[in-house]
């Protein structure tokens, strides 16, 4: 156990360093350089065909290199992805799950985790409200993409329950819909489920990135006229890039009219349900047939911690059951609580436990504070961009916790987007990627960038679980970006 104790000390040191928010956010190194670092500590990176044993102290050195070279996702200036600093009770829960090494497929194998999962799903259902309070079913799943997969899988079974036996051959041409700004997991789910990516229809969005209801209805009617069978609408609550919310009440009315399954991807924007100030963004979610929800993004649970929930109680079992006799035996203690046959998978981590610890530790008000503080930081940053005297420019107004902006080089100030030439916009896009590289090379803030719908590269900062950040940090970061920009 000595090496494990030393490893735990190493991990605690790493977490404490991130808590202080000091040092580099990340390193910009080639894959070859990264491999050479690990090679130097563990004799070599390559696993030989006849691999011999390696001294544990060397492997601990390799662990140090991995922690040192990996981006510090817990650093206050890590904005690169939709996850960040892990909650310490969440870390404890994750470590406990690893130590227990339980699979959540039967009550017998994971009794405590099974009852905790039920409790978390019950709480989430009450938080959503509406029909979910009366009846619901759900599972913790390995990420939001799987949550969206489950939504489409259940919708397919609801529309054509015999397909799980007969297959798609000779059956109706099923058609699904999501916005042109929706997550790519919808397209992947359509491919895996045999719907076909050509039958995953991208619906137009408005200038804010929200699905246009009228365009959805046109697309549904067009598919019906083509002799196809519309069955699924994948709405989005918080798009990955801009944080836009689809108008759920309007989409619900269209789904109700055309008898379509309405699923909500609330993986990024769903946590607003915990906030009295911001839950209006998810208005209408209580009417959805199913929802994908996540705690490892904005709320700060360690990855991964995502849930799928549906208002249709006892629908997951007929959709997924295979009744494996070696695993699911009705005479066992607690067999009625066995969740495994409801799941597409057999082995499943107890990801719900870390969230239970977090929620019990801070309570409803603490969870609400995480949401409110994070969104208030995004609003404060938006104000810094607007007050930057033309050094930075918003791509579009903020909706949620995403802020999209450009750095404007001195030669293009004062900048007016409506009057900018194609050449000027191209220059701004090029400057964005160059400045990103400068920041990364310096070990400074990690900020993602991208282009979208003909709009050249822009920075996208996403705020999540940022109770350890203040406005001064953001102001100083912008000043450093401006200084670096002057050298480009």
Description:
By secondary structure, this protein is an alpha/beta fold. 42% of the residues lie in helices and 13% in strands. It contains 15 helices and 12 strands. It has a 7-stranded mixed β-sheet, with helices on both faces. Helix 11 (248-258) links the parallel strand 5 (229-236) and strand 6 (261-266). The longest helix is centred in the last third of the chain and has 35 residues, at 352-386. The chain starts with a helix and ends with a helix.
Run of helices and strands: HHHEHHHEHHEHEHEHEEEHHEEHEEH
Count every helix, treating DSSP H or I runs of 4 or more residues as helices. 15
Total strands: 12
What's the shape?
Answer: globular
Question: How can the largest sheet be summarized?
Answer: 7 strands, mixed
Write the layout of secondary structure elements.
Elements: H1 2-20, H2 31-41, H3 56-69, E1 78-79, H4 88-100, H5 111-128, H6 131-134, E2 137-141, H7 144-159, H8 163-166, E3 174-179, H9 185-192, E4 200-203, H10 213-225, E5 229-236, H11 248-258, E6 261-266, E7 290-294, E8 306-310, H12 316-320, H13 352-386, E9 392-394, E10 402-407, H14 422-442, E11 446-452, E12 455-462, H15 471-485
Parallel strand pairs: 1-11, 3-4, 3-5, 5-6, 6-7
Antiparallel strand pairs: 2-8, 7-8, 9-10, 10-12, 11-12
Characterize this entry briefly.
By secondary structure, the protein is α/β, with parallel strands linked by helices. The protein is built from 15 helices and twelve strands. It is 42% helix and 13% strand.
